[in-house]
Design a protein that fits this description.
Strand 13 and strand 14 form a beta hairpin. This protein has a domain of 206 residues: SGNH hydrolase (Rossmann fold, 3-Layer(aba) Sandwich), CATH 3.40.50.1110. Helix 3 packs across helix 12 and helix 5 runs parallel beside helix 6. Strands 2-1-3-4-5 form a 5-stranded parallel sheet, sandwiched between helices. It is of the alpha/beta class.
Amino acid sequence: MKSILPFLGTTLILGFAPLRADLLLQPNDMVTICGDSITEQKRYSAFMEDYFLMCQPVGGLRSAQCGWVGETAGGLALRVGSDILPFKPNVATTCYGMNDGGYTAMTQHAGDVYRASTTAFVEKLKAGGVRAIIVGTPGCVDSTAFWRPGATSEVYNQTLAALANIAKEVATKEGVGFVDIHTPMMEVMAKAKAAYGDKYQFVSGIGVHPNDNGQIVMAYAFLKALGCDGAIGTIAVDLAAGTAVGTPGQKIVSCQNGTVEVESTRYPFCFQGAPDKPNQDDACVLKFFPFNDDLNRYLLVVKGLKGSKAKVTWGAVTKEFSAADLAAGINLAAEFMVNPFCGQFNKVNTAVQAQQGQESILVRSLLHNVAAFKIIAPNSSSKLDEVAADGMAQEKKLFDAAAALVVPVDHTIKIEPQP
């Protein structure tokens, strides 16, 4: 591996590296995450917000979950002005198609309606000043658990694939971003069922709503489409010199006798569950797609090691690595699933869930109905605006509470050369 030390020095002087051209996110952006009941589950949307807050592709990101159970693309086209634009988004992601296909074989009518509806909401988001739009495809249904009277899983996944092609067509024509959710979900599902058995549920219940195992794949696809590159942090240690250096967000407190104390304000992404057990947590599918490689690189690079290997202790876990692997850089986030960040990561995630739970009520019960309420109570128009503003302010308070939990994490990495 090419030495990263010159890069570290430059980055420490400049702060965060200049924004890449392929990164659609800018500092302090608001991202609205739009979709149907799969979005309103508040799982992939929470994973995305967790990533924005703790992994920090850029600083100051906010997001709001704007899902609506049972919705089609046409539903979003009708509610952009009432439900989405009040958040003043700079970026919007969309995920529609699961309901648009009607749970039957693909028809010309369904395709035509989906194309027109997707075009309509893209144009309304553009007109509302949204700078970057990512049109997402539908995901997939479970190949064994899915049940609907109108189609088998094979037939309906073909319908969803056809709708995905239409989503790409619209995004290309409109000059906006696009992300294929369907293909990676199908691929990960096939690998998971091959490993865990055909009855393993990748999409739970009646095979439509993913649990965390499918939702983490969705989050991965959207984060990649937004241009996130996964360079969370690097800690480079020179054992011979007794020195260590870290990238921004990784402050070296001390380095002595192979023990490095670090204060981190930028976290790696942390997962729930065991990576080798066939459950519905996010960790169990990590082996089937490159989340850690692409989005979660928290590297330890060690030079000056005497001997061919070393034990590395991080938190309560110790593992052994070769000198060559340490010199090239090991990904602590992938190697140590249980690590010193997990506790605080989970606290932030819980606060994000509370925020997004209120967003469901705010969007569905308040913002969506303000215009209708003004018609039936015209003398209270200004009061209704005040109520809506109060609801938005409370949502912001919950976001701020989640963001405030991203506090410095103190942790120690111990490197012990082995004969």
